[in-house]
Structure formats: structure tokens, C-alpha cells
Fold this protein.
Amino acid sequence: MEMLIKIAHNYYYMVAILLFVIGMHTMLTHSNLIKKVIAMNIMDTSVFLMFVATGYTYGGAAPIVTAPANEVLYVNPLPGSLMLTGIVVAVSITAYALSLVVKIYRYYGTVDYDEICLIRSRE
Amino acid sequence: MEDQIVRITSRLVTPFIQVYGIYVILHGHLSPGGGFSGGAIFGASLVLVALSFNLEVGAKQISHTTASVLESGGALGFVVTGLVGVAVGANFLANRGAGFPLGEAGELFSAGAIFIITAFLGVKVASTIVTLFYNIIEGEEKSGDAH
Amino acid sequence: MELTNHFPALILAILLGISFLSPILYRWARKASAPALIASLFLALVMAVYLLVQVLQVGEFTYYMGGWPPPWGIEFKVNLLRVYMLLIVLAVSLWIMVYALKDLEHELKTEVMGWYYTLYALVVGSMAGMALTNDLFNLFVLMEICAISACAIISIKEDRACLEASFKYLILSAMGTGCFLLGVAMIYMVTGQMNYDLVNAALPEAVELYPNNMFAAAALFIVAFGTKAALFPLHVWLPDAHASAPSPSSAMLSGLVIKIYAFALFIMFYQLFPRSLLESIPLNEIVLWLSSMGIMFGSIFAMVQVDLKKMLAYSSIGQIGYVFLGIGLDDIIAMTGGFYHLLVHAIMKSMLFMCAGIIIYTTGIRQIKQLGGIGQVLPITMIAFTIGSASMIGIPGTGGLISKWYLALGALEIGRPIFVVIILASSLLNAVYYMPIIVNAFMQQEQFQHQVKPVPRKMLIPLIVGMAAIIFFGVFSRPAIVLLDEALALFF
Amino acid sequence: MTEVLTEVLNALLLLFLIVCAIAVAQIRDMLSAVIVFASFGLIMAIVWQQLSSPDVAMVEAALGTGVTTLLLIAAISKTRRAE
Amino acid sequence: MDEATAITVILVVIFFPIIMTPILMSVSDRSEKLRDILAVVTSAITFLLVLTLYPFVVRGGIVQHTFFEILPNLEISIRLDVLSFSLTAIASFIWLLSTIYSIDYMAKEHGGSRYYPVLMFTLGSCLGIFLAGDFFTLFVFFELMSLISYILVVHEETEEALKAGYKYLVMTIIGGLALFFGIIITFELGGTVSFGVGSIIEEGTLIAFLAFMCFLIGFGMKAGMFPLHVWLPDAHPVAPSPASALLSGVMLKTGAYGLFRVIFNAFSIEVMQTNNWDIVLGVLAVITILLGSAVALTQNDLKRRLAYSSVGMMGYVLLGLSVLNENAIIGAVFHIFCHAIMKSCLFLAAGAIIWKTGKRTISELGSIGREMPFTMACFSIAALAMIGIPPLSGFLSKWTLGLGALDANATFYVIVLLISSLLNALYYLPIIVPAFFEMVGDEEQGHALKLSVQDVPPKMLAPMIILAIFTVIFGLSPINVPFDLSQMTSDFLLKGGWF
């Protein structure tokens, strides 16, 4: 029971880790290369969720200064701003991976890793 | 994609998306958004045109060469802005120390170097997205020839 | 403020600047692009040497990006160990680039050359950043930059093997960075800091409160850096990637890229984690056994390879194990050996890949079997190969011996002679697969009947420099060892 | 009352995220998988908005969902649709 | 001669041949004759320089000089004492004769432009081993010599040679690594590996025993000690004969020399005896002696038989080292001298036979003594010395060894010596006796008589004759320089072996 309460208190983290595991599992077990790329994105996004959740303060407002010197409880802006960078990096990796997939398809006529291995072993 | 509705809609929507992208870029220091998201929105509008029409029309908007030059230019601009700080004797990427005018908080032209850097970033991200898109799509003609 | 104060940032700025400038230069001033890259690498190297001098005079110092001190800003930290790493990265990459000028003409299409320079400068720049940064998130960004550009310098050749290898590398390294970021999240959750020193200060208390978080973070870090640096069971991407890449890229990847992650893991263990954490979980022990297995299996796999570059790649798995062994043994002497090996292996493996590159350039041979008698037609190349292999095996007079000496001494120091046996056994295995190549190359002279192009002088000069360096570090190892001792003393 | 509702909404969103992630893994038609992934990204953007990080939400919506989906669709149109 | 001059001479002795290597290489393209002369001159100068050290050493002079530290406390240094001098002298002497012999022998063979430079380089590194001042320097030269001499082993480049060479290479590297391990442990335990500090390790702990075993593997490998001798009978016969003479006559001794240094400088007699390590060595020595001699009996190839005989003979040296009293050490050192001379003589003679007639198998050698009387005479003298016939030098060494064994109350060893002498007789006499006394068949008799006047050219004959004469002199003569040196060495070592 105590465990459950602990989990309930930290449910953002738990979901983030669950998503991470789902993403990683999909990425490593599926042989379709595009599926791998999508799974990689899910994995990355889950980490971002985790980060943003660490910065969240219960009841905190978004860290936008609208008027100076009023006492509003802000959430921690740092994880959010860091995750911006993270998202951009993830997108660029996705784009690069996809261009590789397209080129691989041009050579092998398939985007399935098992089939590619089969083709290579036949050579 | 040969759909009339898609074409007309995208043609109508594109200028608005672009203006919104520029808005997001320029207000990066004031409200949510900034170089990354604004640049992505702007770049996405260009990709949208290319997707809904065809590559030639898309290429007229921004050619591959221009995109890659803009890309290098944006990044170089970032580095140069950072170096201004060193040149005037403050740290790399310094803002106030480098003598950038800070202006009034809440105004459009405030926050000194951040503004400039965001603008460069927007250019860089927008052009990068276009380049990436062309990179993926480019196989079309070549593989089309092959088949 | 003097300009010299900005050198930590300027090194990065120069490398990033040249990387973005290269495609433009290549389009409009093609002749100037390669010299510009070499000049900026050289400039960065000069700055790094200056940093070394400065560190020796005043000790450790820091640099704040944008003038913001931590926890707000990104901090660059300059101390002896980091400068040591920085110097290796810059010097070796400059050296490889000189070789690459000629080799790339042969391996790449002309229109992508400008991009190659860009990616090369990005790889070097991100590694230089990784050596200097004192901030976890900054490290993450640099790791990603390094991963993308390292994948790109593999896939730039665009043949099918390269593309596939590059994709595999990309996916696994994305897994690595994902794990790293998750680990950072775990740490950030309990400490609220990203700066190494601040995290280190906050951790002892946090470990008390949330031990599970820290265990998870430590495990994730080992997986992350282990994947990136090809620590034994996570090495699967390496052989394909390093073997199929263009030779300068292989030299770069095997020589430097995997090392920087080993270095990063060291920093995590000894600067980020408090000593109490290392004592409460057997992290070192895990690294120790994984590296020992890597040392043995890397060599065993290398023995059965038929492709020359693939054999060299498998050998890298074994050799990176030595660096991790230094970390795993948790002893300053062993660590000295590990870091010395990092330097020596950077030189010798790069040189061996260069030799392989020259062989492919002049004759087109990739198979080990066909190398019989090649010593007759490519004498200097094969002598370089011999010296490189001798250093791999640990023949006296080469740098490889010194690092093994220190590793073994460290293993004895903490009373575990079994690891000395592993080091020696792997040396023997190295001998078993390197020696036949050399022997056949020089002995069976009548067997060789391939067409041979003349070797360009631009490719030979780096080889000669490399041979000289290996022997230099085998004979005059004192300065580097003394430097390392002093550098590592900060962490113990 | 609103707070409880918000909590419930948050929990539902998170549940939806998990469902989407599993669905992406299971769906064999790539285009559908990409669409599901896009909805995953959008939900994620809403979650971040709920966590008071509007800038991250915005970037996720534009880059993580918008651009990534565009690129994925482009890649699928160049390759094949079934897994 | 003072110490400074001695240091200079030592440096010249080590590096002069090594420096000559590239010169020989470049000369050999232009003139083969010049190359041959230059090689002989190089080894002659080296030998003469070594001889100039003799007065210095006899006066009891010792040189221990450090050049620089490669790592803290790990230095590159040289050392000259009576033990190093003895081995340096005999090595450079045999080398000189072997080089002279090579001139005519190698004229028939290919690859002279590779052979001579390698020969000179090996000379330099071999003398480097004997003159090294600490284990690390010794190790460096040891590896250098072992690896370079690989080229001598595979010189013929036949399938067989390459195979034997590969075995040699792998075993050498195993040995080198074991040695390296031993040195590391010694360094770890004692903080230094220099010869100039007396015994480095003074306690026979388990880890020290590990070091001892590693040294034993490393040096024993080179010395052909059982069970690490397997490379030797393959590698020595396939080399060109002058190189075989050097491999068996000189390079085997580097292993024995290393064991001397291990026992007296890394450890000490007390450590050896209190921990019963001498018994380990003794058992291995006995097996080596008996096995080498017994297997030699079964060999039908002349050079292989000689190679196995070398294994047995190195066992004597090990035996002397395991007994560790005055007479035993004299015997061991003196046996190094004798064996170097006898075995080189035998290999050179065998080479002459192969060179002249192409016959390698022993059964074909009947009546060869009539064709090549001088060669076979030399062969016979050396072989008889090997067996231990009284007036010859081999007898003296065995006798002294036997005395040492009796002093130590180890009668068993004396019996082993006798058995092995018997075995030696059994495998040498069947070569000698038919060579002179076998009657050839009627139709071949005329043929044999026709050949009987032709022997090998003087440049090949002279080294053999010199060696044969020395074999006789060192057994009989009252002025016996090697024996005196052996006695001095023994005194010196028993006094501690460092200063």
C-alpha cells in the first residue's frame, strides 16, 4: 500500500519511465527502421516529460514575467528551457535518421532490418 | 498530392503561418516561443507548400542552395554575436557586458543580444528544416529514374 | 580582460565557426577550404597548448559562458586532465586531417567534401567541448552533436554498408543519449543542479534521502557511456561502423570519439559522484569486469576477421577496454596507465587505419589474405603498420608497453594479479592476429600481383609523424606520466 | 472541484500517452502509426501546458509533432507503408 | 682503463653494430663484396673492443651507470661485471667467426642484403642484453633480439621455415610477456629493477614465487628449458647454418644469463634455498637434460639432432644454477663457454656438409669423412667434447658440475650427468664412426675417392678449425682464460653479485 501511495505521488515520473521503457523496447525489438525512429522519438519525449515534471511546482504559474515584482509562485523555468534544446536535437536526429532510411531503401528496396540482413548474408 | 482543396487551403494559410512564425521568433524574449519554435513554424510553412504542390514550386520559394547558405549564415551569425562579447572585452556570448542595448523590459526591442541570437536561430532552424526535408525527399527523382 | 582569458570558449567558437564556414568556402573558394580547416585546427591546438601553460602556472580555472556563473550559466572548467584530453583531441584530429586531404579525394565525391569538413570540425568541436564542459546538460547537447556528426562522417560515403552501419550506430547512440538524459533527470530531480561541482556538493545528502535514484542514475550512466564508447556487451555497432567508414573517419572514430566517452565516464565517477557513492555500490567492479571481458573478446573476435579494417575495429573494442580497466581498477597508478593508453591508442589506432587507408587507396585490397608480400611495394606503410602493431602488442620501445606497465602495476598495487594475467593474455592474442599480417607482408614477396598506384607524399608524412610519436611516447614517457600523475591527483 | 477535475484530466492524458505509445508499437500500417505518434506528441504538448511550461509545449507542437510528422510522412512516401 | 672509458666502450660495443645496420643495408645494393667485408670488420671491431675491457674486469672493476629514467625509478642503464663480460666476450667471439663463415656460405643463398644487416643488429641487441644494467633494459634488448632474430629463422622462406618461425614468434612473445609480468611484480615488490642494489626481493612470498615463475618462463623459453623448448628444435635447424650456430651457440645463453641475474640480483641464494625454489629448477633441469638427450637419439636430421642436443646441454647450466655452490656455478658458467664453442663448431660443420653435399639426414652421411676430412675432424672433436671425453673442454665442465653436485650431497645429479653423457655418446658416435669407417659399396667407391680431396673453402674451414682448437685447449691448457673467468664469476656471485 505504501508503495502504491509512493507511486501515486510520483505518477508523472512513473509514466515517464514507463514510456521510456516502451519506447526503448519498441526501438530495439522492431525490425522496421521507421518504427525504430518513431520509437526513438517516444523515448526522447518521455525523458523530456520527466525533466519538465521535475521543474513543476504544484500550483505554479508559467515563468513569464508580466509585471515586475509581484509575488507569484513560478515553476522552475530551467528544465523547460533545457528541454527546448533537447526537442530540437531530437528532431534533427530524427530527420537525419529518416534520410538514412530513405537512402537505405534505395539500396536494398526494404526498410526491414531482418530483410536487409538476409540480403547482406546472401551476397 | 493533386488535391485542389489542399492546394488552395495551403496557399491561403501559408502567409499567415509565416507571419506567425516571424512573430514567434521576434517575441522569443517576451513570451513563450523563440528561435526554435518560430523557425520550425516558418520552415514548416515552406515544407507545406512543397508537399501540397510539387517540388518545383517549393524550390521556387527557397532553393536548396539558398537554404544551405542561410543555414551556415545563421549559425555563423550566432558565433559572431557571441564573439562580439569577446571583442569588446567581456565573456563569450556576453550580453550586457558586450554593450548590447537592453532597452525597456517588455518592449519588442529589448534583451540585447538575445534578440539578435534568436533571430539568427530562427533563420537557421527554418532553413535547416527545409534542407532536411529536401534531403529526405530528394531520392524521388533519382529513384524515379532508376525504376 | 585579455583575449587569452577567452581561449576555452574561443576554441569551441573557432571550430564551430569553421564548420559553418566550410560549405560556403567550398562553394566559392574551393582551394581555401581545406587550408582554412587545418589552420583553424592548428589555431585551436595552439590555444590548447596555451591553456596547458596557464594551467601549469595557476592551476585549475573556470570560464563562464556569457559571464553567468553557475547555476545559471554554462561553466567551462580547465584543469590538467581536461587540457590533456583537449590536447589529444586537437592534436590527433589535426594530424588525421592532414592525412585525410589526399585520402578523401579518392573516397568521396567532390560535392560532399565541403560537408565533410563541416562534420569533421563539428566532431572535433563537440569533443573539445566535452573535454571542457562542467555542465551535465551541455554535455548532453555536445554528445548529440558528436553522435550526429560522427554518424554523418560514416554515412557520407553513401554506399550500402556505410548507410546501414551508420543507422545502427545512430539508433544505439540515441539509446545511449536517452539513457544519459534520463540519468541526468534522476540527478536533477534530487539535487536541482546541472553543474558538476554543485551536483557533487549536493549529492551526499541526496544519496541519503533517495538512494534508489542515484543507483538508477549510475546504472544509466554506465549504459550510456558504455554504449557510446563500445564497452563490451554494448559494442555491437562499432565493428560495422568503423570498418565501413572512409579511412580518415575510421581513424577519427576509433582514435578519438570512443575515448572521449570513456573520459566522460571517468569525470562522472570521480568528479560528479561523491566518493561515498562509489564505495556503496560496486560501480568500479562492474566496469572492471566488463572491460576485462571486452579486452579478451575484442581480441578473440579480431582474430577471426578476414577484412583488415574490421579486424582493426574489433581490436579497438579490446583496446578501449584498457582505458576502462584503468577506471575500473580505481587506483591512481592504473588510472595513469589507462589515460596513457588513451593517448597511445589514439595515435596507434589512427595510424593503423591510415595504413589500411593507404593500402586501399593504392591497391584496393581489403582482405587480410591478399596482403602477402605487400611490404615489397609499400615499404613505409608496412613499417608503420609494424610499429603500430608492435605498440598494440606492447613491444618495448613503443608507447603500448608503458600503458600496460602502469595498468599492471596498478592491478598489483590493489592486490589483484588476475588482471595482469588478462592484460598479458590479450597482448598475446594481439600478437596472434597482428603478427601473421606483418610476417606475410614482408615474407611472401612473390605472391603479390596487384596493380599499385604510387603513394602520395601527403599520405606518407602523417605516417612518419605517427611512427615517431609512438616511439617517442615509448621512450620519453616521463613528461606525460608526470603530467597525468599531477592531473589525476586532483581526483583522488 | 476544478482541481480534482484537473487532476483527473491529467491522469487521463497520461493514460492516453501510454495507450498511444503502445499503439505505435503495435500498429502495422506505418502511416497510421505516424498519425498516432502525432497525436501522442500533441497530447504531450497539452501535458506540458498543464505542467506550466508553455514554451516547451509550443516547441513540441511545432517541432516534435509538426515537423517530425512531416518528415516521417515524407520518408514513408519514399519507402513502403506496411511494416 | 677507468670507468668513464669503460662506459664509452660499452656504448660503442652495443650501438656500433646497430648503427652499422643501415649502412650495410645501403652498401649491399652497390657491392656485395664491400658488404661482406664491412660485416666482418664490424664484428671484428666489436670483438676487439670487448677484449679491451678484459683488464678492467680482471682487476675487479664494475660499471653500473644509469643514462636516464624512462619512468620514475625505471631506468635505462648499463652494467659491466665479470658475468656480463664472460658472456659478452664469448658472444662477440662466436659472432665474428660465424660472420667470417657466412661469407662463402651465404654466397650461394639468396637475400644476403637482408641477412648481414640483421646479423649485425642482432649482435648489437644481444650484447645489449649482456651489458644491460637492470631488468627493464635487459627486457628491451631481449625483445629486440628475439624479434629481429625471427628474420634469421625464416631466412630460407620455405613453408617449413615460415611455420617454425611462426611458432618461434608466438613462443617468444609469450616469453616476453611473462618476463614483463615478472618485471612488473619485481618492481612492485622492490621498487626498482636495477642490478646495482643486491637482491631486490628478500622474502619468498607467493607473489614473489609468481614473479620467479614468470622469469623462469620468460628466460627458460629462450634457454630451451622443458616444457618450453618446443620451438627450439623447429627453429634452429631451418635457419641458415651460421645463423643456427649463433642461435644455438649464443642466443640460447641469453636465457641462461637472464636466469643468473634473476637468481642473484632479483632474489638471492638464501631466498632460493629457503623456499625450495632451487628444487623446482633442479627438477626442470633434470627433465630437460634427459629429455633433450633422449629425443636427440630419435632424430634423423643432422641439424635437428644438434638442436635437441642443445636442449639437453642447456639443462646442465640450469642444473648448475639449481645446485648453487661454488663448483656448480663455475661449472655452469664454464659450460656456457664450452657449449657455445662446441655447438657452434658442430653447426658450422653441419652447415659445411649441407653446403657441400646437400645431405641432411644422418643415414646418408656414411663415409662423409673421406670427402670432407677437415670438416669431419672438427665435427668429431666437438662431438667428443660434447660427450665429455676427458682431455676436452666438455669434460672439464661436466667434471666441475659433478663436483658441485657432490659438494651439495646430490649424488642423484651426478647419476643424471653420467646417463646423459652416455646418451650423448649414443647419438654422436653413430654420426662420427660411419663417417670415417663405413665402407661404401663397390660401384660408389671410385666416386667417393674422386671427391675425397675436396673440402669446403678456407673461409668456412678456418672458423671451424679455430673452434675445434679452442675446444681442445680449454680442456687441457694450464692457461685457461674461460675457466679463470668462471671462477671469478663464481666468487663474485657468491659474494652477493652486485658490488
